Amino acid sequence: MNARLLPYVLILPVTLFLAVFFLYPFALVAKQAFTQGAEFTFANFRDVASHWKFPISLKNTMLLAAAVVPVQLALALLMATMVNRMKKGRDLVLYVWTIPLGISDLAAGIIWLAIFEQSGFLNSMMSGLGLVDQPVNFLSYQNPMMVFVAIALAEIWRATAIMLVILVAGIGLIPKEYYEAAEVFGASPWQRFLRVTLPLLRPSLQTALILRVVLAFEVFAVVAALGGTLFPVLMGEIYSYQFDLQNGNAAAALALIVLGISIVFTLVILRALRVPKGATI
Amino acid sequence: MTAVTTDANPQDARKAGRIVYLAAVVLLCAWVLVPLYFLLINTLSSPEAVNSFPKSFFPAFDLGSLTFFANFGGMLSALKNSIIVAALTMVLSILIGAPAGYALSRFDFRGKELFRLLILLTRAFPLPLLALPLAVLFIRTGLDDTALGLALVHTTLAIPFAVLITFSLFSGIPIELEEAAWTLGCTRLTAFTKVVLPLILPGITASAIFAFVISWNEVFAAAVLTIENRTLTAFLLQTLGEAPLHLKFAGGFILVVPALIFIFAVRKYLFAMWGIANR
Amino acid sequence: MAVIEIKNVAKTFGAYTALHDINLTIQDQEFMVLLGASGCGKTTLLRIIAGLETATTGEVWIGGRRVDHLPPKDRGIAMVFQNYAVFPHLTVFENIGFGLRMQKLPNDEVKRRVERTAGLMHIDQLLKRYSGELSGGQRQRVAVARALAMEPDVILMDEPLSNLDALLRMEMRAELKGVLAESNTTAIYVTHDQVEAMSMADRISVMHKGEIVQAATPLEVYRNPAAEFVAGFIGNPPMNFLPATPKGAGKWAVGGQVIDGPQKNKALNFAIRPEDLRLADSGLTARAKVVEPLGAHLLVTCDIDGALFRAVLDSDMTVKPGDTLTLAPQPDRVRWFDPDTTRAVA
């Protein structure tokens, strides 16, 4: 085999596959979003955006992402630095902390449902402690704040692990000498974290944040399990446009809006955490 | 704290720091494990106990809920569908992704950056959304409501990971090993099968398992693309509204268990594969 | 049994030229060392001979056969890599026998050859081990044994000793030389270490910026460097240079002194090795700046008219920084270079 052609032969399957199952459907979504019947139109976007549920579901999705992602980032950084200085039991602790990585959002929703539902463990605990006489229905329209908290907790519980894995891997690539050098020059542990770990961790932070933010906009099953229709989010609206309302064009338009938001945030993160050329480890 | 204790302060401070540190580790472990424990209690309780109040904080080891789950119409076939789709996804994503990972790690070629960008782009894209137009396409090609159709979509989801993970795995094998094999009488192909493959196999298994978990856990595309042949996630999502609590918990438990085992099986590779893939 | 001929080989990577028009013939059973600093193209040349890299233009002939279009396995070569490339998933035995198995030799022949080469390299005790259980030096031996077991026409070595510590390197140097001399193979050995090159080579090709500046025996390269680069690269400390102006009739003004030289009428560079200088009543006047006692000798770094000048003196001498020394060059060791072409002048 010609060595010059070989790499192209090797990437051909992926390229073809992505062309058929990624680029092509993407083009279809775009086309569907911009047409009604056979006509080019922005009407789908107008319809979707003017629907009364749109501002709420947009606000909910953004609020959830804004509440969840920073907490996850802080938590993942804390866990990663804790694991980094651990000698005994590191593997076990890491395994426990990465367990949620394998748990689907649906299962996570169900797990937290066991805690927050009316006959659930939170109520059992509170009545056991004599805080309430009657089990409280947390996940109802009377407790919108509780619904939000439950969903946010489930998301934090489930999806911190992926950030943790990326950050632990990233920290593992930073040579110990840098810390020793910083220590010799008089940096405190906190300064070492700020001045050495964080800047050198930028590529990993980038990946972790992009992945998490994009996934946060796709939040769906956790919400479905815990809030149902009480807490409309964008992905849930797409689902109901497609199935309950049988309006594929509107679903496509909304999908493009989600994509647009994801791309904007990806670019912002890429820009904010860019690594100057030559400043890599 | 009074002035008397200042002498012993550095020691005390270190000890206190150590205690805070250990407490934090234990607390964070509990944060992960306690919700899982609650799910376990519910799964191992009778349907009546699951719906009663207040809850016991210890499992009753009653298999009532699980039996109910197993006998619930369509649940077992949904479980079977989930396994088939995940297995197909696993095979497809490795077969398609691994050659590209090898190309990225071994060759400098024109368009390499563009290709990497395409891969990264798919990772930054709400992929399940593509299930919508594919649903139409699949109806036209007869792939609608089949395990293969869904597996193809899940493969799209898993492929960026498969490419990046295999890329970092191959990058971990020094090219000199291959070159040495070439000078010792191997062709490119035999060098790959005799030297690279044996070294890479555990890692490939790990990334295959990762693909399996991605598919196993996927909800949205599964719900959109299957109607009769629901996967477990799609089935549970569909029944969320009306299903009794004990069914939800037993189903959630069945969803969680294989994932736990798989994460345990691949834990060694989780970090290695993300480490290099980021660079 | 193989002569290697390299004809007009050039290699470019995009706009960068790694090798310019290389021509080199290596005789049957010769030990040729490619010597140069990193980035000089020596490894690229070796990899082109091995078939791991393709030349942009030019031909490679091994044993009268043109091989530049053949894959490595069909060139009759064996190679030892800098990082050894011992297969981690195979035992030492299977590593050494790897190439033989590829040739589908019968089991007893594989066993015989593996045991023979393992004995030669003193690793017959390690045959059942895996690479992870070996030290760097032992891995090195496995890599060499693996190449020798192929009984190749040509053995190519890419800095094989550079990852060993100094003592082990010296030991392996002698051993490798002995084993290769016995094996009757043609050897090409890439290194940046001039001591390795001097001690092992039949001939040295000194490379610089993608060209072979001089290909000659070690002593010739040392005594009669063909260019200023060779003079400055070989020898530790390197050769001294001083500008010389012609005084006519083969007389030259160097550092305020008049010295005999070639019949030329243009400015040249006068050159002398530090060890070819001795203290005398008349000679170059130098001011000592740094004095380094090295045990066997005394290395004195001096200043002559603002130019750096080193002398290796007997260690019994007492020289202090600031002393004025009179250094007499040994007349038959003086060399002359043309500063325009940097080549040696006869």
UniProtKB/TrEMBL annotation, chain A:
<feature type="transmembrane region" description="Helical">
    <location>
        <begin position="145"/>
        <end position="174"/>
    </location>
</feature>
<feature type="transmembrane region" description="Helical">
    <location>
        <begin position="92"/>
        <end position="115"/>
    </location>
</feature>
<dbReference type="GO" id="GO:0005886">
    <property type="term" value="C:plasma membrane"/>
</dbReference>
<feature type="transmembrane region" description="Helical">
    <location>
        <begin position="62"/>
        <end position="80"/>
    </location>
</feature>
<feature type="transmembrane region" description="Helical">
    <location>
        <begin position="251"/>
        <end position="273"/>
    </location>
</feature>
<dbReference type="Pfam" id="PF00528">
    <property type="entry name" value="BPD_transp_1"/>
</dbReference>
<feature type="transmembrane region" description="Helical">
    <location>
        <begin position="209"/>
        <end position="231"/>
    </location>
</feature>
<dbReference type="InterPro" id="IPR051393">
    <property type="entry name" value="ABC_transporter_permease"/>
</dbReference>
<comment type="similarity">
    <text>Belongs to the binding-protein-dependent transport system permease family.</text>
</comment>
<feature type="domain" description="ABC transmembrane type-1">
    <location>
        <begin position="58"/>
        <end position="269"/>
    </location>
</feature>
<protein>
    <submittedName>
        <fullName>Carbohydrate ABC transporter membrane protein 1, CUT1 family</fullName>
    </submittedName>
</protein>
<dbReference type="InterPro" id="IPR000515">
    <property type="entry name" value="MetI-like"/>
</dbReference>
<keyword id="KW-0813">Transport</keyword>
<dbReference type="InterPro" id="IPR035906">
    <property type="entry name" value="MetI-like_sf"/>
</dbReference>
<feature type="transmembrane region" description="Helical">
    <location>
        <begin position="5"/>
        <end position="27"/>
    </location>
</feature>
Automatic annotation (TrEMBL), chain B:
<keyword id="KW-0472">Membrane</keyword>
<keyword id="KW-1133">Transmembrane helix</keyword>
<dbReference type="Pfam" id="PF00528">
    <property type="entry name" value="BPD_transp_1"/>
</dbReference>
<dbReference type="GO" id="GO:0055085">
    <property type="term" value="P:transmembrane transport"/>
</dbReference>
<feature type="domain" description="ABC transmembrane type-1">
    <location>
        <begin position="79"/>
        <end position="266"/>
    </location>
</feature>
<feature type="transmembrane region" description="Helical">
    <location>
        <begin position="195"/>
        <end position="216"/>
    </location>
</feature>
<feature type="transmembrane region" description="Helical">
    <location>
        <begin position="20"/>
        <end position="44"/>
    </location>
</feature>
<feature type="transmembrane region" description="Helical">
    <location>
        <begin position="151"/>
        <end position="175"/>
    </location>
</feature>
<feature type="transmembrane region" description="Helical">
    <location>
        <begin position="117"/>
        <end position="139"/>
    </location>
</feature>
<keyword id="KW-1003">Cell membrane</keyword>
<feature type="transmembrane region" description="Helical">
    <location>
        <begin position="83"/>
        <end position="105"/>
    </location>
</feature>
<dbReference type="GO" id="GO:0005886">
    <property type="term" value="C:plasma membrane"/>
</dbReference>
<comment type="similarity">
    <text>Belongs to the binding-protein-dependent transport system permease family.</text>
</comment>
<dbReference type="InterPro" id="IPR000515">
    <property type="entry name" value="MetI-like"/>
</dbReference>
<feature type="transmembrane region" description="Helical">
    <location>
        <begin position="245"/>
        <end position="266"/>
    </location>
</feature>
UniProtKB/TrEMBL annotation, chain C:
<dbReference type="Pfam" id="PF00005">
    <property type="entry name" value="ABC_tran"/>
</dbReference>
<dbReference type="GO" id="GO:0005524">
    <property type="term" value="F:ATP binding"/>
</dbReference>
<keyword id="KW-0547">Nucleotide-binding</keyword>
<dbReference type="InterPro" id="IPR015855">
    <property type="entry name" value="ABC_transpr_MalK-like"/>
</dbReference>
<dbReference type="InterPro" id="IPR017871">
    <property type="entry name" value="ABC_transporter-like_CS"/>
</dbReference>
<dbReference type="GO" id="GO:0008643">
    <property type="term" value="P:carbohydrate transport"/>
</dbReference>
<dbReference type="Pfam" id="PF08402">
    <property type="entry name" value="TOBE_2"/>
</dbReference>
<dbReference type="InterPro" id="IPR003593">
    <property type="entry name" value="AAA+_ATPase"/>
</dbReference>
<dbReference type="InterPro" id="IPR003439">
    <property type="entry name" value="ABC_transporter-like_ATP-bd"/>
</dbReference>
<dbReference type="GO" id="GO:0140359">
    <property type="term" value="F:ABC-type transporter activity"/>
</dbReference>
<keyword id="KW-1278">Translocase</keyword>
<dbReference type="GO" id="GO:0055052">
    <property type="term" value="C:ATP-binding cassette (ABC) transporter complex, substrate-binding subunit-containing"/>
</dbReference>
<feature type="domain" description="ABC transporter">
    <location>
        <begin position="4"/>
        <end position="234"/>
    </location>
</feature>
<comment type="similarity">
    <text>Belongs to the ABC transporter superfamily.</text>
</comment>
<dbReference type="InterPro" id="IPR008995">
    <property type="entry name" value="Mo/tungstate-bd_C_term_dom"/>
</dbReference>
